[in-house]
Specification:
The chain is mainly α.
């Protein structure tokens, strides 16, 4: 059935109440139904029920991450040990270790063993040897050239030649 057009004469205008303040709080316009309250209560109850499970899930995720990191560290250690095992399969490595650790030598070889007795090395004049870079008191280039020239042009024996360290040099 077709709808009939409205007659403008039969409609009544609606006016807003004049005594209502213009700035009413927004929550006064909310209409809370029983369904809204029930849904809100169900959401809160669900959060209360699920919160311990979520906390347990987060703790388990942290524990799994820590265990995975530990497994990765142990796998790196296993790889390092496997590399060392592979090294021990090489006969040259075994020989080098026997010479170094056990001081083994082949028959006919001469081995010198130097034991560090903790004595600080000293110079001839009694001052300790320094490990810092120092400047020399003689010109080594001039001393080398003088030595070569003197050795090539002299007929004197070696014990009679002047030493550049003691102020000689030609």
């Amino acid at each position: 059935m077709p709808r009939r057009p409205r007659d403008p004469r039969t409609t009544t205008p609606v006016a807003l109440p004049v005594d209502a303040p213009a700035a009413t709080p927004w929550f006064r316009n909310l209409q809370i139904s029983g369904f809204t309250v029930a849904v809100f209560v169900l959401i809160v109850a669900g959060l209360i029920v699920l919160a311990p499970s979520l906390r347990l899930l987060v703790e388990q995720q942290r524990e799994i991450a820590a265990l995975e990191q530990r497994v990765a560290e142990q796998q790196a250690e296993v790889d390092q040990l496997q590399t060392e095992i592979d090294r021990w399969q090489d006969s040259a490595y075994i020989e080098a270790q026997a010479r170094d650790r056990l001081l083994y030598v082949y028959p006919g070889d001469i081995s010198y063993l130097i034991i560090d007795d903790g004595v600080t090395p000293e110079r001839f004049d009694g001052t300790p040897v320094s490990d810092e870079i120092q400047t020399t008191r003689i010109d080594w280039v001039r001393a080398l050239l003088t030595s070569a020239v003197t050795a090539g042009l002299t007929d004197k024996p070696a014990d009679q030649l002047p030493s550049p360290q003691f102020g000689g040099g030609g």
